[in-house]
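User: My instructor asked us to take a sequence, write out its structure as tokens, and then describe one feature of it. I'm not sure where to start. Here is the sequence I was given:
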Amino acid sequence: MNAATATPARTADSRPRARQPVLDQVCADAVDLALAAAEDVAGIGEVGRHVGMLAEGDRVVTHLFECKERGYRGWNWAVTLTRAPRTKFVTLDETVLVAGDQSVLAPDWVPWNERLRPGDLGPGDLLPADEGDNRLVPAYTGADEERPQAYREATRDSLPLVGYQLGLGRPRVLSREGREDAAERWHEGDFGPHSPMAQAAPARCSGCGFLTPLAGMLGQGFGVCTNEIAPSDGRVVSLDYGCGAHSEAAVVPATHPTSEPVVDEYVYDTVTFGERVVVPADEASQAAAAAAAVAVSEQVAVREPAEAAKAADADGVAEAAVAAEVESGAEAVAQAAAVEVEEPVDES
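Assistant: Let's start with the prediction itself. The structure tokens for your sequence are:
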């Protein structure tokens, strides 16, 4: 075989392509046969108008009819017809109900372990971890066994704390991918730096006295809040998270005790009653005021018997009379106090 008779190599463009089926006209014209087959399955009146046809292969055609059943909106009845070569006799292949472009379909099936969301696990529910879970890796003990033993709870009394941290007593421990998933979820959650509470906080949790850091590698970026007033009490918080209950958010200054009041007993103040000013009187003024008071008392004692009887008849009139007498006596005292006392003239 020389170069002239050699078969040329096929390129991507020269490769044989799949031949598109040609619509068979005999099967395409058998619309009445397809409609009768669809009504035989769905029932009379449940099949709607003819919406199209599709060539499935050589001498194989599928007719589509609108489905009128409730609950199957947008679905179509598909009736497939075929015929033998070199014959004009059309036969029925199958009748099925298929979804259309506008039909309502159920969501894609998702395994139950992938449908779970936080909060779905309740009391008594069990969520077994998959053996191929990439968040877990075999621990130091049990990794060389074909099948890990059943989980046995390890306590501080049964194993040293250092051994427990290394994974002794647990068939599997958290992997690096598991730590990264948890760190990303906590950092972007409600107790991360991007939450509204952290944006308005006066300081970060890294400097708060109520923060208890986690052990291990996660302790480099997360801790547990122990402040019962904080919204994140008992929750894992990021070190750059913060809230208004920070231990150093505000320091209340101590109140200074006030001194005892100082009373000045060496000076006096002038007291104003209405428009008159009361000033201390000398000895002469005090004597005149005493004499005026005696005169007022004698005047009250020698009142007329008729006025005394009238005052005894009515309580209201008596109270008015007493008030009038007291007021007149007060005016007399004031007038006597205002009288100037003339000093004796020395004739020698």
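For the description part of your assignment, you could build on this observation: The mean pLDDT is 74. Try explaining in your own words what that tells you about the chain.
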